[in-house]
Each structure stands twice: as C-alpha cells, then as structure tokens.
Design a protein that fits this description.
It is built from 17 helices and 13 strands. The chain is an alpha/beta fold. Bound molecules: glutamine. Glutamine (GLN) binds near residues 149 and 150. Subunit of the heterotrimeric GatCAB amidotransferase (AdT) complex, composed of A, B and C subunits.
Length: about 475
C-alpha cells in the first residue's frame, strides 16, 4: 500500500501521505506477528486506513483542503481515529477533498483536484467530496479509508471510482473531532474495495461515544438491534424500486447496471416491487438550502481570531476572502441569505418541511417502522409500514465527467457548480432522512462472443445504491454484497 502511495503521487489523493519510514512501520510488523500467532487485536490490526482531511488527527495536520486551516494541527484525535488506532489500525495519511466537504468532484481543493485515472490514461472526476479517500482505496494506497457523507460524499466517489462506499445511519458512528459541515446531516462513512473490508472497519466504529451529543445511546442501539435481528438475506427479500429515480437524464450505462442488479437479485430469489417516493423531486433543492444554511453558521467561527489562519492584512473580510475558496464562499452566501429574516420562511422553513416529507416517504415504503421515530409520528399514522425491506437504485445518474470538462474556463465555475449539485440527486434523500446507504460497483457483463449485439458498455462499472430503514445498516451491507 505504502509503495503505491509513493508511486501514485500524481493522483493527488493525499494532502499528507505518511512518511516512507516511521513508527507506523513497527506497528504494522507487530500486528503481522500477532496475526501469525493467531491473536490479532481486531480485523483491522496492522491495516493501513486513510483518513479524510476533515477528520482530526493528532500526529498529522488537518487542513479541510482550505487556506483558512493552513497551519492547523489538532491537539487530539477524532474518536474514530482513536478507535481505529486502539484496534491496531495505522493511519495511512490524510486524503484530499473538496474544501470542508463542499463539492461533488474533489476539485475545490486548495491542493488541486484529485485525479481518477481511467484505463486509457484519461483523467476523470473522482467524485466528491471524499474523492481522495476513494482514489486511495481504488489505487490500493490503503486497505480502507474514512470519508464523510453529508449529502453523498462517500457514495458518489465510490460510484465514480468503482469502490464500495458506506454511509451509516445518522448517529451510529461518532463525529467528535470531525470538522462540521452541516451537523444535522453529517456522518462518517467508510470506503473499501469490498463490502467485507467496510464491515471490518464498521465493526470497530459502531459504538456509542459520550463526546458526541448526536451519538445513538446504548439503550437505543439495543432497541434497534431487537427490532432488526429477524431480518437477513437468508430469507427472500422484498426489494423496492423507487420509480421517481428513473429520470430521463439517467445514462444508458447506469440504467443497464440498475436493471442488471435487479435481475440478479430476482435470480437469487428476492422479489422486486415498484414504490413511489413522491417528495424525491424536491429533496435536492431542500438539501441545497439546508446544508449551506448550516455551513454558513458553522464556518462563522473562522475569522482569524477565534479560529483560522489570519491573512497578512488581517481584517475579517481579507482573512475570510483569501482563506475560503470560491465554492465555500458561494455556500456561505447562500446559507446566510436563506437564514436572513426576509428569506427564512420561504427557504429554510420550507426546506425543513420538504425534509419531513422525504422522511415520511421512506417510512411509508419500508416494512419496519423507524425505531427512533417519535411516538407522535407513529400515532399520526405517518410511519404506517409499507412492504419493502430495502430500496435499490443508482448512486448517480451518469458516469464520471472528465476533469478537463469541469475545470475548463469555458464551462464557467457557476455552471459547473450547478452540474455538481445535480449529481447529488440520488444521494441526498437518504441523507435528509438519516438512513443507511451503500454504493457498490456493478460491472456490466462482457457480451458473449456469439452474440450479435456489440455492447459498448460491456465491462464498464456503475455505482448502485442500496438504502435501508434507519438501523438496518447490516442488511444494507448484505444486499450490497449480493450485488458486488
Ligand atoms: N456534494 C454535496 C455537497 O456539496 C455533498 C457533500 C458531502 O456529502 N460532504 O454538499
């Protein structure tokens, strides 16, 4: 892995790679010995795990790919980093991202774009914002990686790089020490080349953390477990297909991969059922009101006095104007506007209502009730159980764009921003509802030599997403594994 980090410097997956030699090497050797003696500390003992650079590490800088955190070294580890190290894992460096997690292509980084190099050498978008983590995993520069997923930032890069990206139920994995983007949506996600490596990492991180006020308590974890123990892929599952995801803009490749996945599940004895999630079409707009609103308030603290690197002429506007990149500034403006007295009712409040509708849509199709739903909601009949176990749909409407198309001056930065927002259309609904979701790579079969249909998409990979009811993280992973 580490040799690959040295070789693949040009991919720009890492902002801070680990040094060629160092204490970490001894830790890997010790773990190897433990494995030989059959007493490994955990499934990730001695494994190299890359960490997105918006997750605090004591031994390496944390930049969030931003000028405003130019000289920031955290005095502590995020809980997730501590948990991994206690389990014997070794931090494999800090990965590149869209500044503060805002973006869908990992191009809004002070350290330059992440490169997702195709078989023919062409440079594609790595997806964002956890594009560095995705490329580090895909290029075997680490065993697995942590990212963050607020509106799709782990699932979208997974889809673009042919890796597995898992976003847990909101509150399952600690966010203490993770730099906040939009607190009501932020989750720590896991990326790996297979679902089983993702599961290895989840087994370490799936714990209550008293430092994180949104961490699900132990008693709620027990309640969730008791509700879901009866469900597994050993029984035929009812697979929901959300009809609103079948949009005209879906690329033929993605549509084929979706159909192929459904056919595979059917061949394994599961049944397919169309379902409707009517609020889906408003989810993207609601997300792009709510996330910037929370971001604008989170980023207010970076003023060069309380937090952040001061500019040479240290006024508030100079510090923020030079410290933040263009996309972050755009989000701050959007968020400040939608929270202003005149706009609040028409934007922020409406978006909160749409969020509630999106949550109710999901509750109406799953055959289990949301284990943490307020009792009032249940009484009001909003969470009347539907009849599907999981939903299967694409992760993103199209294959990755070429980097040159995103960064060329002719595209213009605001139109490329809009393009990026649209690519989140299938990932934000699960984020608004706090549900577990995984993106797995599905490869289209090579056409048989005897077939007359020459299929130009054969052998290509597209990301397919599995979404489950809150707390059904294990089931979501099991179904993902069936599709891999
Ligand atoms: N692309 C989305 C955004 O820019 C999602 C980002 C994320 O999940 N961190 O907000």
């Amino acid at each position: 892995c580490i040799a690959n980090q040295q070789v693949h410097r040009g991919l720009n997956a890492f902002i801070t790679p680990i040094p060629r030699a160092g204490q970490w090497l001894d830790r890997v050797k010790e773990a190897d010995q433990r494995r030989e003696q059959g007493n490994s500390k955990s499934p990730v003992d001695g494994r190299l795990i890359a960490i997105k650079d918006n997750i605090c590490t004591r031994d390496l800088p944390t930049t969030c790919a931003s000028g405003i955190l130019d000289k920031f070294n955290s005095p502590f580890n995020a809980t997730v980093v501590g948990q991994l190290e206690d389990a014997g894992a070794v931090v494999a460096g800090k990965t590149n991202l869209d500044e503060f997690g805002m973006g869908s292509n990992s191009i809004y980084s002070r350290f330059g774009p992440v490169k997702n190099v195709g078989r023919d050498g062409q440079e594609f978008s790595a997806g964002g914002s956890s594009g560095g983590s995705a490329v580090a995993v895909a290029a075997e520069q680490c065993y697995a990686a942590l990212g963050t997923d607020t509106g799709g930032s782990v699932r979208l890069p997974a889809a673009y790089t042919g890796t597995v990206g898992f976003k847990p139920s909101y509150g399952l994995i600690s966010r203490w020490g993770v730099v906040a983007y939009a607190n009501s949506l932020d989750t720590v996600g896991i990326m790996g080349r297979t679902t089983s490596s993702v599961r290895d990492v989840l087994s370490i991180l799936n714990r209550y953390d008293e430092h994180d006020p949104t961490s699900v308590s132990n008693s709620s974890r027990r309640r969730i477990l008791s509700q879901i123990t009866s469900r597994s892929i050993s029984k035929p599952l009812r697979i929901g297909v959300p009809i609103e995801y079948n949009i005209a803009e879906l690329s033929p490749l993605v549509r084929k991969a979706w159909l192929r996945s459904l056919a595979d599940l059917q061949a394994q004895g599961h049944t397919i059922h169309p379902v409707s999630l009517p609020a889906t079409k408003h989810a993207l707009s609601a997300y792009y009101v709510l996330a910037p609103a929370e971001a604008s308030s989170n980023l207010a603290k970076y003023d060069g006095v309380r937090y952040g690197t001061q500019s040479e002429d240290p006024t508030y506007s100079n510090t923020r104007g030079s410290g933040f990149g263009s996309e972050v500034q755009r989000r701050i403006l959007l968020g400040t506007f939608s929270l202003s007295a005149d706009a609040m009712d028409n934007y922020f409040i409406q978006a909160q209502r749409v969020r509630r509708l999106v949550q109710q849509d999901f509750n109406a199709v799953f055959n289990t009730t949301h284990p943490l739903a307020a009792i009032n909601d249940r009484d009001a009949g909003h969470s009347k159980p539907g009849d599907v176990d999981v939903l299967v749909c694409p992760t993103v409407p199209s294959p990755p764009p070429l980097l040159s198309d995103l960064t060329s001056p002719s595209t213009g930065s605001s139109s490329s921003s809009l393009y990026a927002y649209v690519s989140d259309v299938f990932t934000v609904p699960a984020s608004l509802a706090g549900l577990p979701a995984i993106s797995v790579p599905v490869t289209l079969a090579e056409s048989s030599p005897n077939s007359n249909n020459s299929d130009s998409d054969a052998g290509q990979v597209a990301g397919i997403q599995v979404i489950g009811q809150y707390g059904d993280d294990e089931l979501v992973m099991q179904v993902g594994e069936l599709l891999e």
